[in-house]
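Regression check, zinc ion case 310:
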Amino acid sequence: MTAHPLHHVTAIAGDARRNLDVYTRVLGLRLVKKTVNFDDPSAYHFYYGDEAGAPGSILTFFPWEHAARGRLGAGETQETLFRVPAGALAWWADRLEAEGLDVSAPETRFGETALPFRDPDGMRLALVETPAAGDEPAWTTDEIPAERALRGMRGVRLLLRATGPTAAILGDVFGFQETGRDGSVIRMEATGAPYGTVVELVEAPGAMPARAGRGSVHHIAFRASDDAAQAAMADKLRQSHGLQTTEQRDRNYFRSVYFREPGGVLFEIATDSPGFAIDEARDALGKALKLPPQYEKHRAEIEKVLPGLG
Ligand code: ZN
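Current build output:
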């Protein structure tokens, strides 16, 4: 069956300006869209990714200045992993430490070297050396050359009380296959795309439930090539797993349905089209504040309420 790797990960941040600095300057991602939370236009929605904002490269944030810190627990994404070229991690460890981030010792996981760290809101991330990444095009900055630059997401780690029901959805609906087990961690992988192909399931039967807040992942999204593929997955969820998705919502840059998987994690299925170039030229992505049509007439008020980024 066709595999449906990750499309994006969406998380909650605190201070908007600090979030922008960490993900663009420190980590070197491109800000591909600056818009507002469609359900709360007094808050930003930032999209970071590769040069084009390709599916699987996208990490998005809702920065809420006064959000309380989240607490990691069952039914939540524990870690978001990005790909870097082989040999880049020692340089990254020094850089992230020099920037005051909380960096852990490198770990070997399923034969790959990962560098876990946290952003200033406590969000758990890791950089993973992926040999193929070095040959791929890179979004570079003054501080980060191509041989070190991030190349899209590797994937995510989910923390679950039981992994079986979640693994069944990943396999049956999204086309992931189990490729390894290490203690309480199961690795599942999708084929057919460079980015977002790994979902690891960490079983923690005694874990407390997650409490969402600053530093928490809000949801993860899987790719659908088009509306028909999305509808087929929604049908399969309903018929084979008894799970109902939401109605389709237009997110301007993709169209989405949502459902809570059996382990408690909020899953989304997002279309690849139309993408981020729909309202901005590719070389100007992320430069202007973009508003969906329903908010354009309130632009002046919205701009007054949003925190300054300068
Ligand atoms: Zn989303």
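Comparison notes: The chain has one domain: 6-305. Residues 8, 10, 219, 221, 268 surround zinc ion (CB under 6 Å). No diff flagged against the previous build.
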